[in-house]
Amino acid sequence: MTTAPAHRQPWRLGPRGQWWFDIALATALVTPAALTPLTDPGWTGLVISLAQLVPLYWRRHHPVAVFAVVALASAAQAALIDTPMWSQVAFPLAVYSVARYASAAWGLAAVGVGLCGAVVAAIRWVLGFGGNLEPDPVIAYVVTIATIVVTAWALGALARTRRAYVDALVERGERIEREAAQQVALAASDERARIAREMHDVVAHGLSTIVVQADGARYAARRDPAVAADTLATISATGREALQEMRRMLGLLRTGDSADLLPQPGLADLAGLVVGTSVDATLPDPATSVPDGIGLTAYRIVQEALTNVRKHAGPDVRVRVDVTVDDEVTVLVEDDGRGAAAPDDGHGLGLLGMRERVTAHGGDLEAGPRPGGGFRVRARLPR
Known about the structure:
Largest sheet: 5 strands, mixed
Number of helices: 9
Oligomer: single chain
């Protein structure tokens, strides 16, 4: 029996739908067989008809066993009844079920039994209808029955092959999705570990020096204030050097460029991002004071959101940028384009990078399609 993939396609029946379909099909075939006692086969024909049709209720879950019962009942019909009956429709359905839900070997065995049965049935029917056992009528019956059997087997084998192919594609897609997610997680983890190592190497030495110098200045201030002043100057220089090295290191991690870095951007630099006739911007006063980290985060959110608009929103897009500063800094960037956003790449960029930046400051980020089309990014950063 073929198992369903993890993500069922909408055009496939689920387990409950398959169950109801099998019941409806078997019931529709069994119902006309109730009239068999009124025909020439009589009550013997009714028993044989039920033996052929009733197993179809279980054809999906036990295809080989169902085919064996139907084949034996069909052999009993050939031995006891010399005319065709309605219930013989069960045989091609049983062949189809074996080819569809069992292995290819069982499918070939079923079609082989069906071809042999075609010869027996043809001879039995020719004699039953009072005809002479001549080649022409026998061949006609054999070809007709064999065509039905082979067609049922071919349809079942084709459906089984197609199902296996689709399941393989679905499994491959899920595997690729899992691998991509793992790669993103590993890349993000490697980036964080790298930043942690670099931060330790750059900052730890400077902070250790500052602590030692501060302890020395505290004791020296009692005896010689001049020594304390020199020590404080050393602390200041060491702190500036450590800060400069940290900024340079972070710049290398982000860009790989060893050139001297400009000061980190903030709210005052937003105007340079929104230059363009298709951007409707509402920005705070450049002189507005917010913590450097908050200003940098707001700048990066606007920068990344506008980058996503240029890459994915399509042509002739109108963009609205609204940055307000009150008890908190709110950032809104929305467009009326196709509504696609850049995927996370695991290196602090894209939506993942924006969300991590906002979360680090105790804020929250909302990103997704907006009503009426387009994409919206909204961030809240407590001051």
